[in-house]
Amino acid sequence: xxxxxxxxxxxxxxxxxxxxxxxxxxxxxxxxxxxxxxxxxxxxxxxxxxxxxxxxxxxxxxxxxxxxxxxxxxxxxxxxxxxxxxxxxxxxxxxxxxxxxxxxxxxxxxxxxxxxxxxxxxxxxxxxxxxxxxxxxxxxxxxxxxxxxxxxxxxxxxxxxxxxxxxxxxxxxxxxxxxxxxxxxxxxxxxxxxxxxxxxxxxxxxxxxxxxxxxxxxxxxxxxxxxxxxxxxxxxxxxxxxxxxxxxxxxxxxxxxxxxxxxxxxxxxxxxxxxxxxxxxxxxxxxxxxxxxxxxxxxxxxxxxxxxxxxxxxxxxxxxxxxxxxxxxxxxxxxxxxxxxxxxxxxxxxxxxxxxxxxxxxxxxxxxxxxx
Length: 372
What we know:
By secondary structure, this protein is α/β, with parallel strands linked by helices. Helices cover 51% and strands 9% of the residues.
């Protein structure tokens, strides 16, 4: 996590590089799976929050073999279907509710002009396609979780059973992904985890609709890292030529992958999971810093990104020969969130985390901003 300013890698030797970003957080304000749960499932926000915390525990605390961050998105699918979700319903809801972070169209438009650009998202394809349409971004440069919900059959008996299980989950306490609290008998988390394990890994797989759990493979964690490798390979580059921007637990693997290879790993209003794997932290109410950092990476690789983040001020940025459109966008920055770009160190990590979490909640709302 701690940055060094020496040893510039391959991107510093004149290569164009590859720009890769997560979707929800750096590009949009949504958490589409959370919002779909709220839309289709009674008490869906609370239901999703419980499953999301279970996901955090399995992926980050237990590091359960075969489970990866973001698998929440397959766990909730049988419940979405039980409450009437269809592929067209998910697509229509997504199209109507895309919320872009301010400046995203301009920032991504500029980045696409200067380097190959990709979106890698754990979100369902219905939503990512809607985001691409809103941005004017090519679908072929976006990775997402592939789902065809309509192909799965569900009996009336299974639908009723899933509704019962949903109500049961809603009665459970929300897990705290702290190892100390998870092991505290007084918190009562152990039987909750055991029951959720039973529901998701014994009861649901025994149902006809349980095929969803084995078929759907969310692009999160290592899945995102593999997508990064694919994007880099498509451009005949190395991982040192990549800049990756993420904000959550599903981004830890790609952030670590790019950082260790010598590329630029950037947290954008990230939570604790993203910040601990990133070299640079962006706290912002707009996407303008994304375009500036991409420009710097295009012309000087990781070294130039770190130089700018070391002392990010309007005056100092004048010395980096930024195009006027980026300078003007920076000058017109208007947000309740103070703009900050910093190198992440052990000394400033907690301070950055506090400010980053405030920015997440201010931009995306308390419920979405608190998710892993």
